[in-house]
Amino acid sequence: MGELTPWLRMRRLLWAWRVWAAVADRARAGVAVKILLDAIGSATIGDEILQILEDGKCQLAWFNPLRWQTVGSLNYRTHRKTLVIDGKVGFTGGAGLADHWTGHAQDPAHWRDTQIRLEGPAVTPLQTGFAQNWLQTTGKVVCGPCFFPDVPRPGTLAVQTLLSSPSTGTSAARLLYYLSITCAQRTIEIANPYQESNVSFVDPELIIELDRAFEEDLRACERVTREAWHRRGWWQRLTELGASIFQEQA
């Protein structure tokens, strides 16, 4: 999108400020707020927002910060965008905090991401995933009824939440994909940048909505054929070679 103008940067900061200011306000009110930021992915969050969180007495930790002893796990990052409230309500999926995420991909200045809201037992695995990363980062355990209340009664929709990471392996997520693909009868549509938090469900109405968004995104995509892939340039081949160094960390 090019370099940000001061005005556009200010607008994006204002949007992020609104979110983080609300979080800090709840922390000042006595709510236990724990925030885990990826040391690389969130490195540009900005001193202004960090100050808001610090002033609000939020508990903030950085996942896998860059140090000489962590060079071997440089690509061990967390891309989970998860929000869990009172251990009962969960949000996961895309959650960009900037002005260009406020649209619906209607033009190049607006992007769209997909996020879902969960209630019920399916929230517990999301909380567990956060607790695992928090323990690894801070050495402190997230526990107690404040974070893990009694599991509420199941709702009307069958939902399964799966987690994967380089440390725990991807067998569960891989099996989910294998079974889904094997059971397909008409179509298979995949839009997936990372296999870290996976929520599977069967709901015809929601699937139709996701399918419609997929088709809209597909119209803005560039088709890649086998022949075009073999004709890719030397620079792309070189970057692929460089990225292959980290393939065991992904």
Write the layout of secondary structure elements.
Elements: H1 6-28, E1 34-38, H2 47-55, E2 59-63, E3 82-85, E4 89-93, E5 115-119, H3 123-138, E6 159-163, H4 171-183, E7 197-201, H5 204-218, H6 226-230, H7 234-243
Parallel strand pairs: 1-2
Antiparallel strand pairs: 3-4, 4-5, 6-7
Helix pairs in contact: 1-2
Rg result: 20 Å
Task: Characterize the overall form.
Answer: globular
Q: Helix amount, in percent? A: 25-40%
Q: Structural class of the helix and strand makeup?
A: alpha+beta
What is the H/E string? Answer: HEHEEEEHEHEHHH
Give the helix tally.
7
Beta-strand content bin: 5-15%
Strand order of the largest sheet: 3-4-5
User: Could you tell me how far the N terminus lies from the C terminus, measured between alpha carbons in angstroms?
Assistant: 27 Å
Indicate the mean pLDDT: 83
**Could you tell me the number of beta strands?**
7
Main sheet overview? 3 strands, antiparallel
The stretches of 5 or more residues where confidence is low (pLDDT under 50) are: none
Assembly type of the shown chains? single chain
